[in-house]
Records
---
Amino acid sequence: MDQKYYVIVNPNAGKRKGEKDWNQISALLTEVGFEYEYVFTQAKNHAIHLSFDAISKGYKHIIVTGGDGTLNEVVNGILSQELVPSPEIKLGMIPVGTGNDWGRMYGISKNYAEAIHTIKESKTFIQDAGKVEYYENGKKQSRYFINIAGIGYDALVAKKTNKMKEKGSGGPFSYLINLFLGLLQYKFASLTLNIDGEERFRGKIFSMCVGLCKYNGGGMMQLPNAIPDNGLFDITLIKKASKFKVITNIKNLYDGSFVSLKEVETYTGKKVEIYASNSKPLLLEADGESLGESPFSFEMIPKSICIIGEKSPA
């Protein structure tokens, strides 16, 4: 069973590219000699249960065929089980979604044949994961993530983008479209930020990211200094800024140079706590998935996920 792969396919990923392209992907897997079982997800969060079931059946190689959201679900399945130490599960990715933000860190190609070649070569890296606690309908919930969590404007844009995806109208430019549309309705959030038990910021913000890797939103480098295996969260906080300044600096999000602006502060830490400074709760997204409301507590899960990648993220 050790060399047999369990392939979790999201048929809805990439405007149903997961379903449309599966025959092509399957043929490529067979062509290079993979022995595998596959299954299609049927609903949101189904991949959490599928990955858990795969591990209980003895699988230690899982391939995600989908987007960053499907990957996040599989990571949650891996980290929520206790049958096998999580670093013993090798996780490969065939990107079918629109963003492929996490895969950029490891040089994972959006070309199916190249992505499959990367998995075949089986070059592995052990990265950290994060766990965030939040509230949904008044109840405390938690979620693991391996890329970036966003608060404030970032969470609003993710929420609007995810609604478009649910209606079948998401696409490569949906995040960028909602970056501009969201400006029309966004109001600055007020929060208190504690890092490793010390208050580091209190006031109004435009947006904020907490994460382990560099990219989100279709290639934006929101955490340009992030290292996914150093045991620390990277945090980027954009303080209250004019909407005109936001628009004129969007291009600087793609190379990370926006962190030099006076409105931007960066931090690192192992434990991050965020509270709304007024009665209006803050929104949250993690790995592009819209979650719940503040207060938030982030905990580091060091060296917990085994990644099959093309290149070192360093």
---
Amino acid sequence: MPDDFLIGIDLGGTKIAAAAFGIDGKQRGKVVRLPTMARMQPAVTLTNMKRVVKQAKLSAGVAGAPKAVGMGSSGPLDQKNRVLHDRDSLPNLVGFNIGKFSLEEFGAPLYLENDAACFALGEAIHGAGKSKEIVLGVTLGTGFGCGLTIGSKIYTGATNNAGEVAYCRVGGSDFDHACSGHGVVRQYRRNVESRPGEGLTAKEVGDLAEQGDPAALRAWETYGRNVGTAIATVCCVVDPTTVVLGGSISQRLSLFQDPLMESARGILPTTSRESFRLELSKLGAAAGLTGAAEYARQQVSD
């Protein structure tokens, strides 16, 4: 039917974003965003979710129930039962059956996937990884996200945990802590003597580095080496065609790209070292919900 449409949702700890998509996978209307309010009562978050979907439908000029809803969210996830379990980013929705909610509120089945996997799929279909056979998507923000697509489909592994590398070790910490925005701030705090750096954000450490602050520049250098180690370690296992980098911290790539590449090439096998390339996300903040919609489209099309 020409009026058939899909809804893609990116559910994060800070914001909820949604957009409508045609059955052909093309976005219809604009992306709508509202705060998640993850520390509030569940009803607050769920009300905002209903609002973004309603506004996305209005923007796209569609009405009624979508054919399906695709959602990318941080893990851990119970994908089979469509239940959320992220205590760090979504504490108010732990144990919540988001699949049942989708059927009751949107009149459509929900297809739930890891947000980093949705990022990778969005970029593989419509972004920087388009036409690439194996795409590794890495998001750098409040955490370290990792997703993999093969043949333009998400690879989930035997237990739906492929890409869950957050707690792998690097730099005396783990991927999630060392390679997140918090990791940059921690490195900066170690480098300063007179200023403890309390209350600083990664953005502010980036601003300081761009102004020539030595402690901030060293922080980004160490951060880059850690990220390079993390990405190259994953690449040694999956040997991707391309790596697509996204998330808020990727916007500061110029501050840490050189140490990242040096670190990565020191780990990669000789035959893949010179071909190793990073691509920045082309879809930006819309990558996750675009991939979520595509994931739902693939499920209802199969």
---
Amino acid sequence: MKNMSQNLVIDPAKLPVHVAIIMDGNGRWAKQRGLPRIAGHQEGTKTAKEIIETAREIGIKVLTLYTFSYENWQRPKEEVDFLMQLLENYLREELPTMLKQDIKFRASGELSLLPENTYTMLQKVITDTSHCQSMILNLTLSYGGRQEILNAVKEIVDAALQGKITPQDINEALFNQYLWTKGLPDPDFIIRTGGEMRLSNFLLWQSAYAEFYITPTFWPDFHRPQFLEALKDYERRERRFGKTSEQLLKENG
């Protein structure tokens, strides 16, 4: 089955522009093997590298990975510290690869909460890859969809009080400009590993018309074949955005 999946032919014309992934199951993967949770996170980082490389190779334009949620700050300090160090090491080690593969790096979230060293490395990678154009890799860090929406509302209210905008100016396009994902297209396809059936406060505004794919596979076991299978599933979807199939058929000739 694995070899068949590796040989799947993906139709470039039917690729989602923006794929977002909720990388779930690191802890459960480790527990099944009698390993500490950090072992799952380490293995999950290897999987992330593989999926990023695959996305770049097949032509995905934007890849967003749910890396660290706003709620994750509540985890044990030892685990949080390890995750921040793991992120910092990843960014340092992968910067040359991003440059070689022409990948622009972005981060979305309440970044001011990150440790100073992690934040500094993050900004370096963002700056150093700012000229890259082949793919955008967006990590959501210290990210929560509700927090993002509340932050946008506060900034819009502040702009209105300063006379920069009026209530009549507020529409979806303007609201998007105040989100942490400003400048990115909405995700076409959201993949969640680990089998849970929820969004977990991820891209709540942006996912209004996203297609979803839930797999029981834990993130450390979600490799290139599983990713290609998910994309083939997306190929078979009909995205109507509120219209009928007949309307779409007429519009597409």
---
Amino acid sequence: MSRPVIISCAVTGSGDTTGTSPHVPVTPRQIADDALAAHAAGAAVVHIHVRHPETGAPSRDITLYRDVVNRIRAARTEVILNLTTGIGGRFSPDETDPNRNASPGMARPEDRMNHVLDLRPEICSLDVATMNFGKHAFVNTPDHITRIAEAVRAAGVKPELEVFDLGHIALAKFLYAKGLFADPPYFQLCLGVPWGAPATPESMHVMKSMLPPNANWSAFGVGAQHFPAVAMSVVNGGHVRVGLEDSLYMAKGELATGNAPMVARAARIIRDIGADVATPAQARAILGLT
């Protein structure tokens, strides 16, 4: 029997991408509709950020999250919801006072997860990373990670541990050994993000080798490595993530017209390699959500 591979779709993200592609969903209706289309194409999990409906800027507005989640749940599908807790870790030192953030970007752990505790998705992302992230720093201290992890576990939400480099896996394993995460832990290997681990077979292999033996894991590559990372992950025994958060293109110079075509291509890659696309029920069993 071939192995079922979970496809997660990262629907919109928080990057400054809306000016590059007209297909990035922005409003709650657009985000929910694109998430449902991605599910119809084969995604068992949809990873949700929200944006300001008028500006496209990243938002933590719980009313926007509630609108998106209610729309998806109203469709009565089996898709698994994964809400981000990533917004609120961006730091860019002010030129005149390096102790001050040059622009709003940092938030308390409680503010980064209040929508998760209110809406109770089955999964939420949890970044185990402090790193240079493009031109700014992405800050997630062990104390903040612990506070989010303890609260979401008490709420019955499974954290997807997003790791961008080897030290992040080491920290996640340290916290796991202290009993912070329920079995089996679920890791997302985030590859190709400046300045984390590159999206190469060598990076994926060594990161996989560091994971706890019982861990489930998925991977994605940003930009040009988006679809190659799907194949790399499947042949190495992992699950996959695609979506407009991680790449805007189907091929060089060809914008994706939505998330569904990306999911459909990932599904073809999975099947061509000889695996199966996991249903939401299979994904729940694999991830320990049932």
